[in-house]
Amino acid sequence: MSSEPAGKATAEGPVFEAVSVHLRDILGEYEADDVEITPDSSFHEDLQLESIDLVALAGRLREQYGERVNLAEWLAEKDLDDVIALTVGQLVSYVESCR
Amino acid sequence: MTPVAIVGMAVRLPGAPDLAGYWHNLVTGVDAVTDVPAGRGLPGGRGGFVDADVEAARFGIMPNSVAGTEPDQLIALQVAAAAVDDAGGERRLGDRSRAGVILGRGGYLTPGIARLDQRVRTARQLVHTLAELVPDLAEDQLSAVHSAFTDALGPDQADAAIGLVPNLAASRIANRLDLGGPAYTVDAACASSLVAVDQAVHELSSGRCDTVLAGGVHHCHDVTLWSVFERLRALSPSKQIRPFDRGADGILIGEGTGVVVLKRLADAHRDGDRIYAVVRGCGVAGDGKGASLVSPEPAGQVRAVETAWRAAGLDPSAADSIGLLEAHGTATPAGDAAELTTLRRVFGDGDGAVLGSVKSMIGHTMPAAGVAALVKAALAVHHGVLLPTLHCDDPHPALAGTRFAPLREAREWTGARRAGVNAFGFGGINAHVVLEQVPGAAPVAPPVVTEPDRVLRFAADTTDELAALLDAADSDLRAAGPGRGRARLGLVAPTAKRLALARKAVAKGRPWRGRQDLWFSPEPLLADPGAKVAFVFPGLEADFTPRVDDVADHFGLAKPVVSTNGVGRHGLAVLQVDRLLDTALRRLRVLPDAVAGHSAGEWAAMVSAGVHAPSEVDGLLDRFDPASLQVPGVEFAVLGCAADRVRAALPPELVVSHENSPMQTIVCGPAEPVAEFVREFRAQGVLCQVLPFRSGFHTPMLEPYLAPFRAFAETLTVHEPAVPLWSATLAAPFPPDEAAVRDVYLRHLLEPVRFTALIRALYADGVRVFVQAGHGQLGSLVDSILDRQDHLTVAASSVHRGGLDQLRRVATAVWAEGGDPDFAALTRRPGGVPVDLSAGLVSLGPAAAGLLPPRRGAAEHPPVAAPDPLAGAAGQHPLAAELNDLLRETADAASAVLAATRPERLRVSLETMPYLLDHAFAPQREGWPDDTDRRPVVPATTVVRHLTDAAEKAAPGARAIAVRDVRLHRWLVAAPATDVDLAVRPAGRRQLDIALGDYAGARVELAERYPSPPAPWAVPPGRTPTLTAERFYGERWMFHGPRFQGLTELTAVGERHVLGTITAPAAPGALLDNIGQLFGLWIVETQQRRRVVFPVAMREFRFFGDEPAPGTRLRCLVRVRTVSDTAVDFDAQLVLDGRVLAEVTGWRDQRFDSDPDTERAYRVPERNLLAKRQPGGWYAVFEQWPGLASRDLYLRKYLSSAERDQYERLPVRARRHWVLGRIAIKDAVRGWLWDRGAGPVFPAEILVREDGTVTGCYGFALPDVRVAVACHGELGAAIAGTDPSISISGGSPATLVNPPELPPRQYVVTWRENREQ
User: Which residues are in the Carrier domain (chain A) (predicted)?
Assistant: First the structure.
């Protein structure tokens, strides 16, 4: 068991890094520092992702982590308000929980 | 005094079309002072300017009478009405017969009167003078000239003449708003507005009025007014208005209008009015015969301020009496000093109170200055925010004796909210108002400023120039207007972060389209004549929360009724929003070359294309009951994958209804199989969503419900499309004939929407800009379909912001791609008629042709002979004879007129100016054959010398006694040789404007003899400089060679001065150049970084004697005025035997990137490296010259002409790393040579070929050596050896990290010198 606080592990862990890389790619940014992605960044308000972007993200995460990471199922359990408020940190926790 | 409440306010001031805009500018410190806008008829300069329009129809004004009416009357009316609106509307005015209007207004030559003067007097004068000059002109010819001149002024409106009577500024308001109290203007010069407020308070106190609109109006940027202030020496020669700065040197003129609505406080409480602030006291006092008519006088000011505080029953000297004083603050040295004396006398010393002057942001608005200040103070009191003042970088020493200090940034007002407002006028009229927070007021919530997002636009011919443009302080960028050029960048809601991003995007040279509200296009899509714009109209989507009411309001269109209750209402709302935005986009001059729609959006496309007439559609929809619409109860599910994959797994009950994108498909069918299908796909990881509405559109399941749609199809007339209309059913344009159009319309309801194919077809047809003309996520589908293909998608509606702000983004995006949207459509009031505020020179235009017979004689211009140019010219030039008579007494001016038509040409080369070899930026080996590699440049002071020589030549016998506004636009390089025109133009009495090509220009003043010199300045105490003159040149702290080296003794240096002795060198301009060199010593002795400086402007040189013979020793004292990171300003005197020979003020040097790491190699490149040797023998150089201008300085030292040619041919984005790599290679090779005992080697001696291999340049014997190079981020790394290699990647464990001032970045470098290693 890690004694690190969960928040820190998420913020600096490999899954967060991977998710950030995918997001930046989808956002079409030039460089890492052009957009600030933190665990608290929300998909809708901060990153302004649209539904088609989530499709792309789901595909990438599935490719990287295998079928256990199923964003489709995970999102289906949430109601609309939850989806709108979704943050990068929540997604990272989900992906980590699948492994 | 009866307390009076401010219950409404409105302004139109520079940079602030309304109160909200003004507040925003005040809080954020916007500098609204700009260059004179084109078309104002002023010769140049800076000031505060407004654009204005009037809602003519609202006020019952005939639009065609607007032109003949004095503009300030219309603006005052518009602003007064806005103030009444702000107070809650006309019903809040109470008994209108007891409502008055008192406005401050000056008796200046306002544009309406000026235009009348031109029509009546100037037209006659023109003909009169013409008849005198050319006596044989016939009467009908003169009359034709008269007509042409008056016609150029526009139609004469004799019946509108009442609109030129000055007091109508107030009376027109009373008339239009039906106010029966006294309405009049007052003129108390710059105190007018506050005197008007004082009068208003009396009207309210006496009970004669219950409401008074008070304020001031000033719209007069006339040459006469400017000239008055210039003659009074009140205009800032530095063209900056810096109230309470030590270096303040005068005003800049502004214009504007402000009106406040005043009521007795008790009445305002009774009526439940919103109260901004309470006027507690007013005071007005004159100077008597205290001082002169133009000098401000503290005694009168003190009495005005004290009277006001007495009226308020308050003691100004009490400790916490005042939190904010909005000063008159004109930025004239005398005015600021007198006002500070007044403040000290009345309020005493201490600290904690804030001093402000809004003139620093908008200029001096003269009679309207008081109301601009009053509204500012009232807003500060109301919001509890203390506001900043600009340009007070070096506060006036007298501030220290007061309790006041200016703020750099807005901050919360925690103490008692009481403010004072000053307005002092010429002639000795002073006014003061005391404002206070309304008693018992609930704390005002933190101010929420809602105003339009700002749009910044920049354009240049090339990406490089664009980058150079952006290489400026944020505040300068925020104040800049859109330029012209192919490469464009637009930024909305510009934050510091976004501006930084903008610079970065341009540096990379790749298009950036929309993220962070930034659009940048180095090769704009619409610059290609074949490129098209398409509108794509969204249909029904899951989320539908458009925010477009403000768009409807602004353009005067119907607001959509947004409902998703039932598919009928939802569909209707979508159509309304689509059509509203279609109209708005067109008003914004964003026009489609093709239109298409998604699902129901295709109907909006049909209307947009003009296939169905809007009125007919409206009529039909008005009769349509959305609740009655019957559709099948089948469901849609959106699946995050391609249509092929869906079809392969589709059960028989379901059909594909929409092929949205390669990543999105919609299926339709009964609820149960849809749910089952969704479960199955989700399990495979496909994102799925069941849509919240049911219909069965675009599937055969709609067939039984088709009747009402068929009725639509058959009823509506089909027209030829005005814009090509594309079908998503066909993925092609609609067929031309009517029956086929109706057929496609019905097929569209039953067949899948093939959006993917449609967008690809549009792209193939040349569409590059896709505007989503509606609300939804259609744009992201377009992006997903086109993926990396070059295109722009932008949505006209967003959930993230209001509609107008989103339209600003559309306009910005389209502009960045080379479009020409009408940005003003977003700010202009619909129905607003522009008000013309200019009264400039009248040009006859094409009407001038043929009015007079062609001139006799040859077209050739004669040479102007000295010393009696007119006598010489008269024999040859027909006009000169007349001029000779007319202008005999001003022979020099007449000669200049002739000279102006025949510019002299100056050859700039090392042959004509051999001394420039000692003013070369890039040192090279002795005997180096290519002089362009040395970069010999004409010094600024040599330019000045050429300008004075040219002036003295144009006016023989006269001497240049002053040179003003020296502007140095770009380097004037002598190798390769170049020819430059010297153009001379008269600019008033004894003044000539002289331009040296587009390199430099200045105004030269001439006189018969030199004026008597001022006293030499006292020398402040200083220390002995570290450097001697010998070391200063020997160690190349100055790059100048012997013919420019004049400093023979470096005497003393202090915090703000430097003193030395100059022995006059012989080269032209070299004496004055040494002033700059002496300043260079100050930089070297006192500054640690950015020590490379070059002059860019000089405000004024004044000469009091002829230039002394070479070898004469002069004392030179340089006094430093302001120092910032980017520029330094200083003054200097040259003194010969205790007598001042020349004085320069406002010499401005720009500072370039340099630091101790780079400086040695910059100064002595043949012995030092920019790169540092690393353990292992490779070399690392960091790009410590982020600015383009700085980069240019460094690359000139390193590259030979062949290499510079390569550089020029590179794509812009590749240049940075290319230069960094070249420097690294040259340094690695030079380091390698030095390891082997070589002597000095100049960087240019190592030639790096295009393929990256190295050889010696111009005979330099370079042994056989190979190099490898790599660049990453700001690091360039190179290694020399027999078979070297090197590579860099980011990350850790780091080999190197960026120096602290560069972005934090780590590098992992791997290298080897030889392959065998």
Answer: 13-99
Nearest to B1033 by CA among B986, B1084, B997: B1084
Buried b / exposed e along B605-635 (16+ C-beta atoms within 10 A): bbbbbebbeeeebeeeeeeeebeebebbebb
User: What pLDDT digit, counting tens, does each position of B423-464 carry?
Assistant: 999 888 999 999 999 877 654 544 444 567 888 999 998 999
> Which residues on A lie below 8 Å from B686 (Cβ)?
58, 72
SS3 track for B411-465: EECCCCCEEEEEEEECCCEEEEEEEECCCCCCCCCCCCCCCCCCEEEEEECCHHH
Q: pTM of the predicted model, to two decimals?
A: 0.52
Asked if the Cβ–Cβ distance from A52 to B664 is below 8 Å, we say yes
Instruction: Name the residue type at position A49.
Output: L
Q: How, if at all, do strands B353-356 and B404-405 pair?
A: parallel
- SS3 category, A28: coil
Contact A34 B664 (CB under 8 A): no
> Is A51 within 8 Å of B777 when comparing Cβ atoms?
yes
Handedness of CA B1053, B1056, B1060, B1065 (dihedral sign): positive
ipTM above 0.85, yes or no: no
CB atoms within 10 A of CB B1211: 10
- As a whole number, mean pLDDT of residues B519-548 equals 92
Closest by Cα among B220, B266, B259 to B5: B266
Q: What residues of B act catalytically?
A: 919, 1073
Tokens of B157: 């409106």
- Ramachandran bin of B743, using left for φ above 0, alpha for ψ from -120 to 50, beta for the remaining angles: alpha
CB atoms within 10 A of CB B1310: 13
Q: How far is A72 from chain B (nearest CA, A)?
A: 4
Q: Are B1002 and B966 in contact (CB under 8 A)?
A: yes
- Percentage with pLDDT > 90 across chain B: 56
Nearest CA in chain B to A29: B515
Distance CA B1241, CA B925 (A): 8
CATH code of the region A14-98: 1.10.1200.10
Q: Which residues of B976-998 are buried (b: 16+ CB within 10 A; e: fewer)?
A: eeeebebbbbbbeebbbbbbbbe
In this complex, the residue of B640, B687, B800 whose CB is nearest that of residue A48 is: B800
User: What pLDDT does residue B451 have?
Assistant: 63
**Residue A22 to chain B, least CA–CA distance (Å):** 16
A2 CA: distance to closest CA in chain B (Å): 24
Rounded Cα gap, residues B669 and B677, in angstroms? 10
Query: Is the pLDDT score of B847 beyond 80?
Result: no
Contact B777 A52 (CB under 8 A): yes
Helices (H), B290-332: 298-312
